[in-house]
Amino acid sequence: MVSTDFKVRYQNSVLGYMWSLLKPLFLFAILYVVFTYIIPLGKGVEHYPVYLLTGVILWNFFTEATAQGTISVVMRGDLIRKISIPRYLVVIASALSALINLGLSLIVILIFALLSGILPSFSWLLLIPLIVELFVFALGISFFLSALFVKFRDVSYIWEIVMQAGFYATPIIYPLINVPAYLHKWFFLNPMAQIIQDARYFLVTKTSITVWSTIDSALALIPFVVVIMALIIGGVYFKRHSKYFAEDI
After folding, report:
1. pLDDT recorded at residue 124
2. What pTM value is reported for the model?
3. Disulfide engineering: 202 pairs with which of 126, 186, 188, 211, CB 3.0-4.6 Å?
4. Does the structure show a pLDDT above 80 at 179?
5. Phi-psi region of 221 (alpha: psi -120 to 50; beta: other; left: phi over 0)
6. Nearest residue to 118 (alpha-carbon basis) of 130, 126, 109, 106
């Protein structure tokens, strides 16, 4: 299912799989020009191009994984009705397909980092647990939304609006240092803010504000708790309703 989904997505496209790299790069180029030369939000941020690209690519994965995950069960309706397979595999396959795109995009980030003069370090390896956290979060959301979408088709449109709002509510195009310090802890209630800022800290610059440097207590674990709760709630809701998928699709 992962292979088929990835191939069908770029079927009859001249550039094919290259679009998995070109789409985030084009978005990055637009944002970079706007927020570096027109509205200089990145002024004073070390290696801002890589800083910005990291946020854009991680957010794009979350958007793609949850958007595709939301419609995955309905899109695989014929398969679910004909073959007795664990329903959750459909959602996982969708998330893994998005993960392939993320892997390709991470290669681009590393190349940009090297070209920008950032020296490789062992801290780059800490991106791996962050990617795992990001994948788990996206999967939990996808489980919940995919089960909900079977009955309510409006879910995909509502989630698209939520993601548009989330893009600006997460420090992707603007550095967190431009936000008043007393608001930082509220930003980190959002796991995506924690993941993106940690990734920037490990990969780009040690001046990146992280949840650990903002909150000196067990409250720093809140974004991680949110991720685990999203997986548990999404998984339980999906399992409870999956028995009716064949009838409702």
Report:
1. 92
2. 0.89
3. 126
4. yes
5. alpha
6. 109
